[in-house]
Specification:
- Helices cover about 75% and strands about 0% of the residues.
- The protein has about 400 residues and is mainly α.
- The chain has one domain: Growth Hormone, Chain: A, CATH 1.20.1250.
């Protein structure tokens, strides 16, 4: 088997790369998914509205998505090691500055711009590019599922730590400690260093040509459009579910358990999506996920609310949470190849993050305007049905090109 990752040492095998990439995902996403727990204590102490907090998180998601294609482009050209290291350091700096906001603008710049840019270097597309080049086509869907599942496990593992820190050292201390946890990603960057990224027999194509080719492909446009909905739903729920439950009289522990259950069952959901994606059309998997989300959200919103209904909803959403990522990245790799996988996945992820911006921001705006999250829940159901329909006609066949020797 020929692989584009040439290790600098014999120990840097594809399996080691997978393990360390998964740890990077677990730390990066695990810290980030706890931000919703900071909404109430920070807005209360700083006398901010929920819209102010939600705007910073919305900007974070938008910046994350906007910088992801460029992070992927650099990783595709020079290897992922430098990108992961830079992303980790920016992430940690953002957390530390986020702990000492002087104005809403400084909070947006730290939680939004710094953390968002850092996330683009340590998560989905950059990691997908590393793994896509390190493993053969028949294993890609599975390893992409494993790495995404690791990110979900980070959410499950770090949420209780985040809640404990908030209870014992306050939100300032919690953010500083989480910054220390994030530093662990920096030395792991050495493992994902890629010495030679271009394939020996790759077709001759520049990054701009690859981008134009993808944007002219109907399936890629549909895939990217549907991914908007995924971002809208998961970030709205991650940021606003704790506050929604508190408004309905639920104890804080129920919200923490709910988010932890989402993280735990997402490990299962993403792994299953990765395994099944190697055996059946990936666009059918995506359509099923979006239709199932519509059903789960509708049942949660329209049935009587209880601790049991919250936990059942969390389990269902956990199974469907990031299970869209392995088939989405798998389709990109299958149709266009892995030479520009990080960049093309990054552009699709930008659509996801535009949706994330809208989910986080609209949740805060509409709550402040109406005193309720109901409109956003209804919108989530409608968008989910639309995304399920959008993914059905996607063509997964590989683009055939003339290949030349390097």
């Amino acid at each position: 088997m020929t692989t584009s990752v040439t290790p600098a040492a014999s120990w840097r095998t594809p399996t080691v790369v997978l393990v360390c990439s998964s740890l990077i995902m677990a730390l990066g996403l695990g810290v980030r998914y706890g931000f919703g727990l900071f909404l109430q204590p920070m807005t209360a102490d700083l006398h901010w509205t929920r819209e102010t907090f939600a705007l910073a998180i919305a900007v974070q998601n938008l910046v994350w998505g906007a910088t992801q294609p460029f992070a992927g482009m650099v990783a595709d050209k020079y290897g992922a090691g430098r990108v992961v290291l830079g992303g980790a350091l920016l992430y940690v700096l953002g957390l530390v500055v986020m702990a000492h906001p002087t104005t809403p603008l400084s909070f947006v710049l730290s939680a939004g711009v710094l953390v968002g840019t850092g996330l683009s270097g340590v998560t989905y597309s950059v990691i997908a590019g590393v793994l896509g080049r390190a493993f053969p086509p028949e294993k890609r869907s599975m390893v992409l599922g494993i790495s995404t599942a690791a990110g979900s496990f980070g959410q499950f593992a770090l949420l209780p730590l985040t809640q404990w820190l908030l209870s014992h050292v306050g939100w300032v201390g919690a953010l500083v400690v989480l910054g220390g946890v994030g530093l662990i990603m920096a030395p792991l960057a050495a493992v994902v260093v890629e010495k030679r990224v271009a394939h020996e027999h790759a077709h001759r194509q520049s990054a701009s040509e690859a981008m134009r080719e993808a944007l002219g492909h109907r399936g890629y446009v549909l895939l990217t459009t549907g991914f908007f909905v995924c971002g809208f739903q998961v970030v709205f729920i991650a940021v606003h579910l704790p506050a929604y439950l508190a408004d309905r009289g639920m104890a804080p522990g129920i919200a923490v358990t709910a988010l932890a259950l989402i993280g735990l069952f997402n490990v299962i959901g993403t792994y299953i999506a990765g395994r099944v994606g190697a055996r059946m059309p990936k666009h059918h998997i995506l359509s099923f996920i979006y239709f199932a989300r519509a059903v789960a959200i509708a049942l949660f919103v329209f049935l009587p609310l209880s601790a049991l209904s919250v936990y059942l909803f969390s389990i269902a959403m956990g199974l469907l949470w990031l299970s869209t990522v392995p088939p989405t990245n798998g389709i990109v790799a299958q149709v266009f190849g892995v030479r520009y996988l990080a960049m093309l996945s990054g552009f699709a992820f930008f659509s996801h993050q535009v949706g994330s911006f809208m989910g986080a921001w609209l949740g805060g705006v509409l709550y402040d305007r109406t005193g309720s999250y109901d409109i956003v829940w209804y919108l989530s159901i409608a968008l989910s049905v639309a995304a399920g329909l959008i993914n059905l006609p996607i063509d997964e066949r590989e683009i055939r090109r003339a290949r030349v020797a390097a």
